[in-house]
What does this fold into?
Amino acid sequence: MQKQENQSPINPLPPVVVALFFVIIGIELIFTAGARGYAGGHEGVGWRLAALQRYAFSDDIFEWMLGNGIWPFEHVIRTVTYLFVHQNLTHAAFAGVMLLALGKMVGEVFSPVATLAVFVVSGICGALAFTVLLEESAPLIGAYPGVYGLIGAFTFLLWTRLGQLGENQARAFSLIGLLVGIQLLFGLIFGGNRDWVADVAGFGAGFLMSFVFVPGGWQRILSRMRRD
It folds into this structure.
C-alpha cells in the first residue's frame, strides 16, 4: 500500500527524449542569447549564421559530393546536425514540444536506442528526400523530420493496436494527414519553402523502422521469413 501511495501519477519522460530536448533548446538559447547581446559580445550576434553555414543541410553541397564522389565528414554529418539548428526560439520550441509529446509515447514502448535511432535515421531520410525530390537553394534546418519520424512510430503503434481490436486501421493516419494538410494550407496562403517533403519522408521512415524496432518485431520478421 505504501509503495502505491509513493508512485507518481505521471509517468516520467524517457531520458533519451529529455536529452534530445535539452540539446535542441540549449543550443537555441545560446543562439538567442548571442543575438540579443547577452553572450559572446559582437561575435555572439553571428553565432546562428555561422551554425547555419556549417551545420545546415545543403542540397548544393550534397549534389556536389554526389557528383564528385567525395564525401568529407564535415559535410556528410550535415544530414544529422541540421536537426539541431533552428530559425528562432519559436521554431525550436514547437519542435521541442512535439518531441516531448511524441517521444514520451514512443519511448514508453521502444528501447532508448530504438527511440534515438528513429529520430536520427528519420532525419537522415528526410534530408535525402529533400535533396532528391526538390531543387532547393535554401538550406534544410530544424528537428521536424526527426519528430515526424516519431509520429510515424506512434502511428505504427496505433495502427497495430487498432488492428488487434479489429477496428479501422486507417484512423491511425489521421494525425499525419492533419499535420500535412495544415502545412500545405499554410504554404498556399503564405508561400514559403517545401520542408514538408522532408517531414513526410521522416514520417515514412519512422513508420517502416517500427516494424523492426517494436519489441519482438525483429524476431517476428525472422520467423515469417523462415516460414516463407
Q: What stands out?
A: Confidence is low (pLDDT under 50) at residues 1-5. The first helix runs from residue 2 to 6. The CA atoms of residues 38 and 44 lie 8 Å apart.
